[in-house]
Amino acid sequence: MKRITLLCSFLLSFCFLFAQNGTEPVKLTDMLKIKTVGNIVANNEGTMAAFTVTSIEPDEKKEGDYKYVTQLYKVDLTSNAAPVQLTFAKESSSGPAWSPDGKTLAFTRAVDGKPQIFLLPMSGGEAYQLTKFSYGASSPKWSPDGKQIFFASGIGLKDYSKDSVLNPGRSLVSWPFEKPGLTTKEIYSIPKGKGNPDGSIAEIRSYLLNNEADGKATVLTKLNFQDEMNVSSNVSFNQFFVVDANGTSTPKLITHGFYRWGSVEPTPDGKKLLITADVDSLESPDRSLESEIYLADADGGNLRLLLSKKGVVYGNAKVSPSGKWLAYTYGSPAINDVAALAVMPLNGSEKDAITIPFDRSKSSLTWSKDETFLYFTAQSDGGVPLYRLKLATKKIEPLSDFNSGVNSFALGKNKIVFSKTELIDPSGLYSADLSMANVTKLSSFNDWVKTKKLSLPEKHTFVDNKGLTVEYWVMKPAAYEAGKKYPLLLEIHGGPTAMWGPGEASMWHEFQYFCGKGYGVVYSNPRGSGGYGDAFLKANTADWGAGPTSDVLTALDKTVAEGWADTSKLLVTGGSYAGYLVAWIISHDHRFKAACSQRGVYDLATFFGEGNAWRLVPSYFGGYPWEPKVKELLQHESPINYVQNISTPYIIFHGDNDRRTGFVQGEMMYRSLKVLNRPVEYVRHPGATHELTRSGDNRQRMDQMLRTYEFFERWIH
């Protein structure tokens, strides 16, 4: 830990010196310049890595608009040569997967609106299309002998049921269809055709079914009826297929039945498939929250349950290179739960598993070639370090610092190649030895940042009124001068299980933009945030308002105590859960000159009905809105019930198609404030989802940030 602390101090000093070199402030349109390194995969020899880079480009179909484009690159791990771009098509390329011999790269690209698998020879030449599958094909994975490729395809229940190839026996679902008063057999027996509205009950049902097919009615019978954009009656499943890599065969189905198939991966010897799924013939996949791990033969037959327990989600399953060991995570389906890490013999059972104590949420489990180590990333203390577990001792050590975020990585023969977000680069590609020493930057995608004058995040801590240590970061204006006073913006994260720090890619531009505009910024990880362990994660249970408010306002107070903030120009903003918390704060506190909520939740009982993230309600508040004690708690914790106390000038944003939180609550908040004659403005973005401010339409992203800045400027000048 001392080594890491010293390293962090060095990095912060380096970042501070670097930040002084540029002269230009970060501008709004700099958002369009950011290139993001995505998924990284190394070939079997560990000498080469392929990765994705997503950029924002002008949309040739819509003047003045911008689109995301993802291309494939490769980098030689035996040298420090610059990455080489592999794809150049207008359509994005993603999901790279090396053939076992390293001679071919499989990837996914859309054709006529459906993803398909393409193959790119590394010896040169154009990529060619392998699949022309009517349902689409994605997530390619090679068989160990390089002769076949496994892939996933999302197929609707109706399509799967009537497909004579995929469902030759025309089998029916065995779990309840949940259409009141009708059995599954009766539903499937409804005659096809236009029907007759004046005919028999069978003809009437046929007529009504035809109306649904023509888009005249959407009939909902499932529990989770909201996707990210719309309400939907569709039921679909991932099914997995295998196809010959030489293109001489049609795809063959290897998963069967109306179940939630999560992932399929061949074992190193090619004899078995490791499958994550929820196979329950008695419960609708729409209701089930559990998942299991299975082993099957290479053709998908002889499915054998390996890991299963009531109320447990198993995931992140990774077989070691020799095929001897299985690493995986398991935990509760609740969002506010830290999953455990375990290792077991692949030919054993759960009683043989060894759980590795580590109170952080693990992801991207990756075995070393010799199986001595298991590498993974985890949000922790404001950063996303790369960790390494030594199997023999169960010791876990961080290999990178807590002031940056490792977003993706792959293990080469003698190197780790990884992408990282840090102050000096929102997304860069790096290599290091297998202990993360001798770090070398390989990319120059975001070298434009060198011309910018950046603000350095300064980390602080305090102990809150619950005895928890809370971390927060202070960013002074980029052109800060001692002795002057500046506006101070309190930024709050959502989730509520999110975690922010200097390595948070989604906020890099926004923080620097406001600092470039002469604002100071303070942000924290209040109780309930991820990255600090299970107890911290659950510390806002039944307390979404007052407790987290105390934490974020304490961070603000301590920043104000530094003496450079103008207390007559305090501002606050946040999105999603943080949109909720902004509303809670300004209905209980009146220090802010202006406030902004994006994509927020304001009435928890309504959120239970209109948001696809509705399970947050029972997870955090212990029940449902009709239960007397829960009803009282939800009313107490809902900002809409304190709307009469809001006098702070307030701008509210929501996407027209945001089904994560729903948008009715935003309308409730806005209308209530208008009736009360309070200073409020409501902005709706057509077609926007909950991703409005993160990965949504780029003009809308800029619009939201610029309107927020303009609104703040009205009130502080």
From TrEMBL:
GO BP annotation list: proteolysis
Domain of life where this protein originates: Bacteria
Alphabetized Gene3D superfamilies for the sequence: alpha/beta hydrolase, TolB, C-terminal domain
Keyword Signal: yes
Family annotation (Pfam families): PD40 (PF07676), Peptidase_S9 (PF00326)
UniProt KW keywords: Hydrolase, Protease, Serine protease, Signal
Domain (Peptidase S9 prolyl oligopeptidase catalytic): residue spans on this chain: 509-716
GO terms for MF: serine-type endopeptidase activity
InterPro entries per UniProt: 6-blade_b-propeller_TolB-like, AB_hydrolase_fold, Peptidase_S9_cat, WD40
Signal sequence, start to end: 1-19
Stated name of the protein: S9 family peptidase
Species name: Flavisolibacter ginsenosidimutans
Lineage summary: Bacteria, Pseudomonadati, Bacteroidota, Chitinophagia, Chitinophagales
